Amino acid sequence: MILDSEIGEQVTQLIGERRSHPRLEEPAPDLEILETIFSASLRAPDHMHLRPWRFLTISGDDRKDLGKLFVDHCKDSNPSAEQKEVDNAYAKAFRAPLIVVGIATYKSHPKVPDIEQAIAAGGVMNNIGLAVYAHGFGSVWRTGGYAASQIIKQGLGLVENEEIIGFLYIGTPATRDRHVRPLAADEFFSVWPNND
Ligand SMILES: Cc1cc2nc3c(=O)[nH]c(=O)nc-3n(C[C@H](O)[C@H](O)[C@H](O)COP(=O)(O)O)c2cc1C
C-alpha cells in the first residue's frame, strides 16, 4: 500500500481532472504502456473474484472489420439509411487508433447478480480510461445502439451470457483540453442521519 501523501494528492488530482476526449488521433499508447495499463486496471473491485469480464483490442486495419459490423448494424436498424449515414457508421471505427471493447461475461453465482458483475467490468473500463489519461493520452467511452446490437455482438464473438459494456476509444487528444468545472461534492454527498 502506498502511504505517501504527495503521490496520494497527485493521484487524487488526476482523478479529479480526468476528462473524455471525443476527438482522438494517432498514436495510441505503445504495447508496453498498454500492458501495464491493462494489468493494473484489472485490479478493480470484483465480488467473489468472478472476473466477469473480457476485453477486445482493435487497431490498425482490423478496424475495417469493425467498420463493416457498424455498417451492417446501421443498415439493419435503418433499411432506408442514406449512403452518408452508412459512410458515417463505417467511419466511427476510425475515430481512434485503438478501441477496447469491454465485455461483461456474466457468471452464475448465488451471491453476485449480473448488475454487480457489470459494475465490476465497468470498474476495469474506468480504470483503463484513468490510466490512459495518466500517461498523457485520451479516451472516450461510448455505447449507443452499437453496444446493444445483436449483429455487432455476434460479429465480435460474444456468446449468450455476454454483453458489451462499452467501446473505449483511445489515442492522442486531437484538441486542447477544454476546462472542466469540478462538481461540488456537497451536491452529491451528505451525512446520514442528518440530526440538525
Ligand atoms: C457506460 C457509458 C456509456 C457512454 N456512452 C456514450 C455514448 O454512446 N456517446 C457519448 O457521446 N458519450 C457516452 N458516454 C459519456 C462519455 O464517455 C463522457 O463521459 C461524456 O461525454 C462526458 O465527458 P467527461 O467524461 O469529460 O465528463 C458514456 C459513458 C458511460 C460511462
Please describe what this structure looks like.
The chain has 196 residues and is of the alpha+beta class. It has eight helices and five strands; from the N terminus they run αβαβααβαβααβα. Strands 1, 2, 3, 4 and 5 form a five-stranded antiparallel beta sheet that branches. α3 (62-77) runs antiparallel to α4 (83-91). The radius of gyration is 19 Å and the shape is globular. The two termini are 38 Å apart. The mean pLDDT is 96.
How do you describe this structure in short?
The chain has 196 residues and is α+β, with helices and mostly antiparallel strands. The protein has helices at residues 5-17, 31-41, 62-77, 83-91, 114-134, 144-148, 150-155, 185-188; strands at residues 24-25, 53-59, 98-105, 138-142, 162-173. Helices cover 43% and strands 17% of the residues.
The helix-strand sequence is HEHEHHEHEHHEH
What is the 3D shape? globular
Mean pLDDT level: 96
Distance between the termini: 38 Å
CATH architectural grouping: 3-Layer(aba) Sandwich
Oligomer: single chain
Bound molecules: flavin mononucleotide
How many discrete structural domains? Answer: 1
Query: How many helices does DSSP assign?
Result: 8
List the SSEs and their pairings.
Layout: H1 5-17, E1 24-25, H2 31-41, E2 53-59, H3 62-77, H4 83-91, E3 98-105, H5 114-134, E4 138-142, H6 144-148, H7 150-155, E5 162-173, H8 185-188
Helix pairs in contact: 2-5, 3-4
